[in-house]
Amino acid sequence: MNFQELLDAYDDLVDYLSSGREALVTHPMKTVAKEHCDAAFCQMLIMMVVTCIDEVVLKGLLGKKGRRARVLAPYFVEQTSRGRVSNQQRVQGLCEAFHREGFVVDDEVFSDYLAIKYLRNMLVHAREPLEHEMTFILQRGFPANPRALSHDHWRRVMSVLENVTSYAFALGIVSSPTRLPKVSGEPAREDLGIIRRQDLPRVFRSNLERIDSALREAEGAGSEDTAQKEAALRELAHEALYSWRQYWDLTFGSQRISEGDILGGIEVFRSLHERRIYPTGPFVPWPEEVPAGVTRDEFERFVHEGLGLKGYEPLRLQEIDLAMRIGHKVYDLARGLPAFETLVGSLALVEQVKTAEYLEEAKRSLAAAELADYWYSYVAHRSPPDFERWSTRRAALGTQKKE
Predict the structure, then answer these.
(1) pTM above the 0.70 mark?
(2) Is 79 helix (H, G, I), strand (E, B) or coil?
(3) Residue 271 parent element (H or E)
(4) CA–CA distance, 389 with 396 (Å, rounded to integer)
(5) pLDDT band at 6 (very low <50, low <70, confident <90, very high)
(6) Domain residue spans in the chain?
């Protein structure tokens, strides 16, 4: 594994550790003792950060000669004629080496790093720090008991990682000595874990994605399904219908986008695509709304001359304008949403009396996905979409209805 791969691996570890902590302490369905959670995650971060800085960043950037060698090489000297080099001497020497090369770095960053190294050794080797180490840990504002580590300590550890990494990389980037800016670290604002009204569509969308994944996995698992497993999948199928309807009401419904609007937009774009009527002007975004004071004639002139859209009759400009606006909104709401696949995949699991409900909602979700594709093909590619794909899907729904 080369240097960049190691660096990326540790970057992923820190990122997922941070995301995991945030997901746990803000999970709306789980209650945790935040102070214990923060302490545990901070301990893991400390063990990870010291290895990342020492074995990946500093050792990976160590050169055989030049500025990097002068600054970083002494840090890795563990034994001299005077005896073993202590962690304090190594970290202090690294800080002084930056200063000798003319780089003004923040000494507090290196002091924090030394305290973190002491804490890391206590955790990894399961031993009490030496007396002078414990004194220094406390002087730097870290606790003697690792279970007392807090999110404020987490932010300080993250700041050390970001700043030491920044300093080390600057040795090979900055052409002349200078004051190296201190990275401020993670912002102090904390997510409270409260689901707000605007979060609800994302919750139901995530439900649909996870249900779709679960149904796909079950489909490829073979024929060893038990009655208990089938019952669990049937429950997921019921949740799929509920989640889709809630998502529709909270997004399409709240924006007053009707199924008729979507079907009308499909017809407009199909007509434009089939006749190859595309704007010939630059890729100028279609206006979200006609500015106040702009007359109908002025707007038509902008479409004809600014966008280069002509020859669309017998369609009216008002129809195209509405289709463009609805299409954009639907694209944002339906892009990548597996509602159609999930609902169709649920048909084999639900009771026969519910089949019509699922088919009706599958039809509505299919129309939204089709309009999103038509709109994007029109504005982004100025070329027709795969009409056969959508025709096949509609035909599949018709077959389900007959069955």
Answers:
(1) no
(2) strand
(3) helix 259-274
(4) 11
(5) confident
(6) 3-173, 197-277+312-402
